[in-house]
Design a protein that fits this description.
heterodimer; A: alpha+beta; ATP Synthase, domain 1; 5-stranded antiparallel beta sheet; B: two-stranded antiparallel ribbon; 3 helices; 4 strands; 17% strand
Chain lengths: 202, 70
């Protein structure tokens, strides 16, 4: 019954060793065009350039260096704008669901879900703070960090009186909610507004 | 199969991650100072027209809009 087992197991480990798992956002350094395809294309259609693939438009990320670099490269994007693009900073602090996460160069590769909270970017003595609603952070082994948020605003754009009003409203809604869905919505409201409140006071 | 690990409260209530993150984002937008608030809310406006097809013919289109005047 287990005649094939040793063979299968041996195969599984060699496969695992051969392909080091990469994030889908990690672009390989050598994005090489398929030379046989390009040749065949030029033979058939000499007057049109061969089509470009996504990898020829994306600049490749450097491979993981042997020594830890001094700076962390950050990309911070929103659905409608790019806040930071390939910016070299000293440290970022990410509000992950598991707690605040300080990311320095050489951080181990991680994916973290964000919760409503303050995302701060440290550059020497300058600290830029944003309030992010939710999203994800991808930290790569080569000291690159990609932070993706649904909504992010600088702290000074937040109106404290509206935050207090919202917090009171949703606390009341949480007490009067009858269905699970209403309760969850009110709970989200309380969470978001308390996070906004502590961002403004703390 | 979904994992049996503990799920967040919003997931237990039947929300998807998209719903949850959009609710969060909307609450943050509503707490902004003017003029940032109206700017952020205007960005989220959706306007589209839907027509169902029955027997290969389009029915009267329905316009769905966040703009109050339409």
């Amino acid at each position: 019954m287990f005649r094939q087992a040793p063979q299968l197991m041996a195969r599984a480990t060699t496969v695992a060793m051969r392909c080091r798992r990469l994030f889908s956002t990690d672009v390989p350094v050598e994005a090489s065009a398929d030379s046989t395809f390009v040749e065949a294309w030029r033979k058939l259609i000499p007057n049109i350039e061969p089509p470009k693939t996504p990898s020829s438009f994306m600049t490749p990320r450097p491979s993981t260096p042997a020594s830890i670099p001094t700076k962390l490269t950050v990309n911070f994007v929103l659905p409608y704008s790019s806040q930071l693009s390939n910016k070299e900073v000293d440290m970022v602090i990410i509000p992950a669901t598991t707690g605040l996460m300080g990311v320095l160069p050489g951080h181990v590769a991680t994916i973290a879900e964000l919760k409503p909270g303050v995302f701060s970017v440290h550059e020497g003595n300058d600290v830029t703070k944003y309030f992010v609603s939710s999203g994800f952070a991808f930290i790569h082994a080569n000291s690159f960090a990609d932070i993706i948020a649904v909504e992010a605003v600088p702290l000074d754009h937040i109106d404290p009186s509206l935050v207090h009003k919202g917090l009171a409203d949703f606390t009341q809604k949480l007490n009067s909610a009858s269905t699970d869905l209403e309760k969850a919505e009110a709970q989200i409201g309380v969470d978001v507004h308390s996070a906004l409140n502590s961002a403004l006071t703390g | 199969m979904a994992s049996n690990a503990a799920v967040p409260f919003w997931r237990a209530a039947g929300m998807t991650y998209i719903t949850y993150s959009n609710i969060c984002a909307n609450m943050v937008r509503n707490c902004l100072k003017e003029p940032y608030k109206s700017e952020a809310l205007a960005r989220e406006k959706v306007h589209f027209s839907v027509a169902k097809w029955v027997d290969g013919k389009p029915q009267k289109p329905i316009v769905r809009s966040d703009d109050p005047e339409e």
